[in-house]
Design a protein that fits this description.
- It contains 19 helices and 4 strands.
- Helix 2 packs parallel to helix 5, helix 4 (about 110-120) packs antiparallel against helix 7 (about 170-190) and helix 14 (about 355-375) crosses helix 15.
- With about 525 residues, the chain is mainly alpha-helical.
- The chain has a 4-stranded antiparallel beta sheet with strand order 1-4-2-3, covered by helices on one side.
């Protein structure tokens, strides 16, 4: 510590130039931030990894219990179907009851809530979020609802980070950085995918590429993955063959797969939002009955096709190995589509990553088999299209192409599919953007804010942080020309590692991060900021 202090003093005293002194002070501040936050990020990563391992273990146990119950009930063909139906009804209704009573912010995947916390729209009550998300997620996914474990682990990772930040006395900005790092650690631990956790933080959760954010997310994701691999092993999540590099003549087919994924991804987003709106119209006193009804339907499907319910891991591996007839793929796709939308609509805690990957694999295998029938030389291995289909469908829905590519590479180990992945994900992204459909987590966040938070006609102002994207309406404009209403004030700009208080003549630029304070009577400025900072 003495050496650090002496070197910093020497740097500070090395010049009398005010501009140089400002640059040196900023550099030293960044160095002090890294020294403080990186050890805390390591604690967050280890703790998030432990919780993710416990959560995965509990889910495996409940999945085994559910499958054993179904197998046992098959010996009673007349009325054995009642057992999985009652089992799924009980789990679905219990999870929804727990969430509604103790922590409503843990509904669904929890990722929109984490984004709201990072944008300072919401608070994070880790003491409630952590236990409710854990127990509720085990009940919901274990009962057979078509939901994934990654949403809960992301939100629980952020809750752990909030707890660590409080215990270690982190500043408000450090706390937000740790919460984002905890989210990445949760994703890394869920899928044995540390790079995906890092990219997910940078591309989707916080969209902040400052070195301190990059370093904290990297450390947390890597250590969470180490903990997970130490317990669960180092094998990829999906045990599938390593398919060879496809011929270049297959690239147009992969492009068509991306376009199809883009269109069907938009259909998924709209269906999910429609289901939530329909379920929201149900009176609160009937919410548990609705959850139980959905659970009953899931249990009945599980009686006939156990692989169709739950996270869908076994079904995904079947598809990725190519062991499915073309004629049955549309039926499986429609069934999993409806189950996922219906399960999420109940507001039970659970994510959509895993379910949408199953849907993407089904779509990819269908395209691959059709191409193999028409041009076998360009599509010699249809199952390779299933691998690419997962990333394309993820990209169309979440609109995070880098995360989609890296996630599938880490989950399947099929690095030979890099070029087809890039082509297909690019086409999926363009198709979804041309259809002017919001990414699912952004749409869910806006829906949540409109329903519960934007009508904040109280005495508390709102502080928001936003990133100006390339091609956004605000890029290149002065603050005075933004047309923001009175009471909506920009108080900070951050660019290239520097921050300052803007004036009326400050010109906003792409990749600049701005902070605004919005008074209750100026809430219309929030929509203007969101539109102005986002590229067309």
């Amino acid at each position: 510590m003495v050496e650090h202090s002496s070197s910093e003093d020497a740097l500070t005293a090395s010049t009398n130039n005010p501009q140089a002194e400002s640059e040196i002070a900023h550099y030293l501040d960044m160095r002090r931030q890294r020294r403080r936050i990186f050890p805390r990020a390591a604690v967050v990563g280890i703790a998030a990894g432990v919780v993710a391992v416990l959560f995965r273990t509990a889910l495996v146990a409940t999945d085994d219990l559910r499958n054993s119950l179904i197998a046992w009930a098959q010996h009673m063909p007349t009325w054995g179907w009642l057992f999985p139906v009652v089992f799924s009804m009980a789990g679905a209704s219990a999870s929804v009851a727990l969430v509604r009573r103790y922590a409503p912010e843990t509904t669904g995947s929890g990722i929109p809530h984490v984004k709201a916390v990072l944008q300072r729209f919401r608070t994070l009550r880790w003491q409630r979020v952590l236990p409710v998300k854990f127990v509720g997620g085990v009940l919901a996914i274990g009962s057979g609802l078509a939901l994934g474990r990654e949403g809960p682990t992301v939100q629980m990772g952020s809750a752990i980070a909030d707890a660590v930040a409080g215990w270690l006395g982190a500043s408000p900005r450090e706390r937000l950085t740790l919460i984002a790092a905890g989210a990445g650690a949760g994703l890394a631990a869920a899928f044995n995918a540390p790079l995906s956790g890092l990219v997910f933080v940078l591309e989707e959760v916080q969209r902040d590429f400052r070195p301190v954010v990059f370093g904290a997310a990297f450390i947390a994701a890597a250590l969470a993955d180490v903990v997970t691999r130490f317990v669960a092993g180092s094998a990829p999540v999906f045990a599938v063959p390593s398919y060879p590099v496809p011929p270049l003549t297959a690239l147009p087919i992969f492009a068509l797969l991306g376009l199809a994924a883009g269109v069907l991804g938009v259909a998924f987003n709209q269906s999910l939002l429609a289901a939530l709106n329909i379920f929201a119209r149900v009176p609160a006193r009937w919410s548990l009955f609705v959850a139980a009804t959905v659970g009953a339907g899931v249990g009945l499907v599980g009686w006939f096709a156990p692989d169709a319910i739950g996270g869908g891991h076994t079904l995904a591996e079947t598809v990725l190995s190519g062991q499915m007839l073309l004629a049955t793929i549309p039926l499986w796709f429609a069934l999993r589509f409806v189950l996922t939308v219906g399960s999420y609509g109940t507001s039970a805690p659970g994510g959509i990553f895993a379910p949408l990957l199953v849907l993407g694999a089904l779509l990819g295998l269908a395209v691959g088999q059709l191409a193999h029938m028409l041009v076998p030389s360009a599509a010699p291995i249809p199952a390779a299209f299933a691998v690419v289909g997962m990333a394309a469908y993820f990209t169309a829905i979440v609109r995070a192409p880098l995360t989609g590519v890296v996630l599938i590479l880490e989950m399947t180990g099929n690095y030979e599919q890099m070029l087809p992945l890039l082509v297909s994900c690019f086409c999926a992204y363009i198709a979804a953007e041309l259809l002017k459909n919001l990414p699912i987590y952004e749409a869910l966040l806006e829906r949540d804010l409109i329903r519960q938070g934007l009508h904040l006609h109280n005495s508390e102002p709102v502080v928001v942080e936003m990133l100006i994207e390339t091609g956004a309406p605000f890029a290149g404009r002065e603050v005075r020309a933004l047309g923001l209403p009175p009471g909506c004030v920009l108080v900070r700009c951050i660019s290239d590692g520097r921050e300052w208080v803007p004036t009326a003549s400050t010109r906003l630029a792409p990749h600049m991060r701005i902070t605004a304070v919005i008074a209750p009577e100026a809430m219309s400025g929030l929509a203007q900021l969101r539109i102005g900072c986002r590229a067309e």
